[in-house]
Specification:
heterodimer; A: mainly alpha; two-stranded antiparallel sheet; two-stranded antiparallel ribbon; 22 helices; B: 329 residues; Ribonucleotide Reductase, subunit A; globular; binds fe (ii) ion
Amino acid sequence: MDMKANKKKLGLKEKYAHMTRGLDWETTYQPKEKVFPQATFEGIKVHDWDKWEDPFRLTMDAYWKYQAEKERKLYAVLDAFAQNNGHLGLTDARYLSAVKLFLTGISPLEYVAHRGFAAAGRNFPGVGPRVACLMQSIDEVRHAQTQIHALSNYNKFYEGFHAGATHQIERVWYLSVPKSFFDDAFSAGPFEWMIAIGFSFEYVLTNLLFVPFMSGAAYNGDMATVTFGFSAQSDEARHMTLGLECIKFMLEQDPDNLPIVQKWIDKWAWRGIRVLSLVATMMDYMLPKRVMSWKEAWEIYFEQNGGALFNDLAKYGIKVPECITQCTVDKEHISHQIWLTLCTHGHAMALHTWLPNADEMDWLSAKYPNTFDKYYRPRFEKLQELADKGERFYANTLPMLCQVCQIPMLFTEPDDPTKICYRESEYQGEKYHTCSDGCKHIFDDEPEKYIQAWLPVHQVYMGNCWPEGTDPTVEGFNPLAKYLEWCHIEDGKDNCDYEGSSDQANFAAWRGVATQNV
Amino acid sequence: MQIDLRTVAIKPLRNTFDHLVERFGDKPASRYQEGSYNIQQESIFHYRPAWDADNVLFDKKRTKIQMKDWYALKDPRQYYYGSYTITRARQQDAAESSFEMIEDRGLAELVPADLKQMALDVLVPMRHVEWGGNMGNSYITAYGYGTVITQPCLYHAMDHLGVAQYLTRIGLVLDGPEALDTAKEAWMSGAMWQPMRRHVENLLVLQDWFEIFVAQNLVLEGLLNPMLYDYLDAEFSAKGATAISMMTRFMAEWSAETAKWVDAQIKVAAAESAENKAQLSAWVTQYRAETLDALAPIAKRSFGDKADELLADLTSEFNARCAKLGLAV
Ligand SMILES: [Fe+2]
Ligand SMILES: [Fe+2]
């Protein structure tokens, strides 16, 4: 045997460098600006793409191998879950409202992330970040698909899943909150996309999104969700590394990048925090068996962990976004305010809502000693009184939405929890409303973008949200019923209170049979 | 309380999601269907893209090709992420054992010197062509319309990266890291590679994503892959360079597999309308000429006197393929 063969064995890092670096080249037959048309318009200056540190060092063959192994295991568990009626192991079928929110509000975002990272993977003029973005792009299509596959079994037995992962995110009023977040990021340029999704979403906020859903699932016997959640974890670790690497790279390349990056961090932190208020609501109200309160999660995953991150970024001149101060006030209010709104609009929801029972209210009192009894318990008790009389209250209008985050205008003034917070901006002679200083600030910075927002409630009232061929002039025309039909929300099955729903009845009956079989 | 959930037979309320019932009827759906159909948003978008203000985020107008139903362009392999990675993992496993055997036993040393040089001159610089293929297909994934075509294009983009890395490994096995530098130099300034590099760069600035699909996936790969992995490979095997054949087996299998997928797309798109057929045919005619020009010096290096004859054969095979797909070329 020839000795040269052995001598040539390369170390892993070195081998990876050869495998990826140098694949690209400086084009000469076509100008760089035409090959990478999106590289400069956002104002970010990059002098040396080779300074990019590859965070993963995964060659394709290794990627196929590891990921296929994970897929084999994942689908084996999902098959077993379906075969063994895994859904009967849930604490209670009302837990599924959280899963419905996930399938209709999060899975379609995984898909958009897949497309957006493909775009980033095409548009950066450096081979290192391009490969990293493409790997994230393919991971994200994995996430969308494994989520749909895992939750497809629930669709077979429960209401509220049948519209699938995407139909409702374009139509349902509260789903425009997560949708507009991703639309906003994808319609920006590749660098802002990386700060919005790669950094803010995947790095700063991901723990507050996935940990609550995944531990909620584990606590409530939802092995389907736990399975895809665990399986995605090692992907997420790579994505977090990419997000952080990307921001450091931008900051190290040129001092002029700092103010741009800071502005994006401020914007996307607030955008993200607003989206997370839906997660807050899920944690505090939708889990039959609770994991921890939103306030606790916020303190651990944002105030502590996020604090460490911003300390780390301080050396580049990055400051903690100003809007964060408001969050220390908000953390005691937002989940209650949102759940009250969802419960009172439960007839227009694609999932079941319910009023918290006495035990649950006591838990909320204990977790929110400063606010729950004082501001929210009385309102839930009032609603319960009505419900007990058979007059469960549903508002007969849809709420007005914030022009930026698209959450109904339900949040209160930072210094007065009894007063709804309205902010107003004027642009080209029109008035626009936002829910907070944070959202107003974002609006005022890019009014030409945010006036384009497709606010579902507004559109409903303009008559744009009915099935094709709807005639609104017929006698007895019911606009809400037509809106629900357009959204694929089956009135009387998917919406309204869990109490008295077919999900509740079916689950009880099936569990009854299962229990008798012992 | 222990509950034996397994013993309960429950009749499901429904088979699958609404949109799949609408499309395929009320029956259980496959994982490919659940993971691919209608998962791209369709019509309601909030903001015009800063990078393309004339269109919405996912827009049917980014190509001249038009389809009544973009989901007609399905993947005959029915790849969703799981089935895709599992298939490639199996193939990479085989490739890995070939490379290992070659490296451990020093089989590269047995390759006749002229064939080794041929591989270094022809195969190794191709890693840059593959990188171009990666870029074109990631563009389609970003800006194309309908998951049944954008999804396999990402798999195809990743495959191109994988192939670029196998070609890199061939350089490392046959010669070492210097082989990559030499190949890059040839790619950048060697006369033999300039027509190809010009062609690849021209494809990088196309904006119509279906045009990229045709120019890259049908025409360039349709002519280049058979040349490398059928004809040149036959030369390698016949003349005692089995090690090289072993190292390109992945590519041979892969290009046969992906050609079937590409064919299915073209066939359906061409059958959709006379306009589509005319547009696709025009693109094929244009890019066939440009690709053949780009291939000529590489064929000359690979096949010497037989190069012209070989390119003629390749072209007539390619034309027959296109005719079967309903194109007039
Ligand atoms: Fe993800
Ligand atoms: Fe807002």
